[in-house]
Amino acid sequence: MMWEEALVNGSMRIARIALARKYDVSTPTSSFLEQPTVPTRKENVASLVLKKLPILNLGIAPERLIDFKKDPDSKLKLAALRNWMNKVSYTQFTQNEIEDEFEYLLMQYQDHMDRAKLKYTLGSAEFWITAVPEIMNDLAHLKLGSTAKALFGFAKKELMLMEEERKAPGKELAFVYKAQQQFRD
Q: How many Cβ atoms from other residues are within 10 Å of residue 65's Cβ?
């Protein structure tokens, strides 16, 4: 990080150290600055969340990261996660209780989404096995209404999966789940 970036980002100490290294100047230290600080509750919550996010391997294409970051769904899920982090950091819960709550919500969300995806997958398989031959038959007999109805049924299945995701318990942690799914090794 260049000293200008550190200064813009508000890290005066990092900027000072970077400048000192650049110009080979020793920096005065203060015993006050050198003493370890106790992490704030918000930092503890952020640390907990960061531990659950996948560690990205260097082989991941930068485009995948950029697409993930720009995805409106990812942005919404990240906002929900930040909101949860802010709320939980102001509760009276102990750190262990916050960790338990996080684990519980994440497992609830994962379980709910696994079930919803299974329903969706079974519905899709049913569509391809039963509806496609019907559609072919209906098209052959020019029954366009039946064909359209079958195709809309498939689109409704995708919408139902999206609705399940919106009402899932633990949806505040959906960003963590999505990142784990997107970037697992």
A: 13
In tens, the pLDDT along 47-82 reads: 999 999 998 888 888 898 899 999 999 999 999 999
What's the burial of 174, exposed, middle or buried (CB within 10 Å: 0-12/13-18/19+)? buried
Largest CA distance in the chain: 87
- Cβ count near 27 (within 10 Å): 10
Judgement on whether residues 92 and 50 belong to the same structural domain of the protein: yes
Whether pTM exceeds 0.85: no
Q: What is the dihedral of CA 15, 21, 22, 26, to 10 degrees?
A: 100
Is residue 105 domain-shared with residue 56, that is, in the same domain?
yes
Look up the domain containing 153 and give its range: 39-183
